[in-house]
Specification:
alpha+beta, 22% strand, binds 2'-deoxyguanosine-5'-monophosphate
Length: 114
């Protein structure tokens, strides 16, 4: 088992998800509680619990996650713009302890967030 959290189980195929991208380094799937018409999660297959545990060796992986976000934004019709969010730990609002990037769009998104 990769780790005992819901995203590790999705990576292992143990629980289902609406997967829209799958490559050697990451997976993307629709969020089960969408906060916008498009709300996708992009996650590394490597176990990285939180954003602040990234190291220099993860630089190419972080770049890859961002480029997958660009590709998916295009495929999902977000030409007018979108938001990428990474929540980190409790005060950042992180609920699943596996690094994930939210790709959200399809409506105007306000700032600042709550
Ligand atoms: P965060 O709060 O940044 O840790 O975001 C976690 C997101 O994960 C939240 O928007 C809801 C989503 N989520 C939680 N459990 C599942 C699940 O089992 N499947 C899917 N597709 N999304 C999930």
């Amino acid at each position: 088992m990769l780790a005992d959290n819901i995203f590790a189980k999705i990576i292992e195929g143990k629980i289902p998800a609406r997967i829209i991208h799958d490559d050697a380094h990451c997976l993307a799937f629709h969020d089960v509680h969408p906060q916008a018409p498009v709300h996708v999660l992009i996650i590394p297959k490597k176990i990285i619990p939180t954003h602040d545990t990234l190291t220099a060796e993860d630089g190419p992986l972080v770049g890859h996650l961002n480029l997958v976000a660009v590709k998916l934004a295009g495929e999902l019709g977000l030409a007018d713009g979108y938001r990428l969010v990474i929540n980190c730990k409790d005060q950042g609002g992180q609920t699943v302890p596996h690094l994930h990037m939210h790709l959200m769009g399809g409506r105007p998104l306000h700032w600042p967030p709550g």
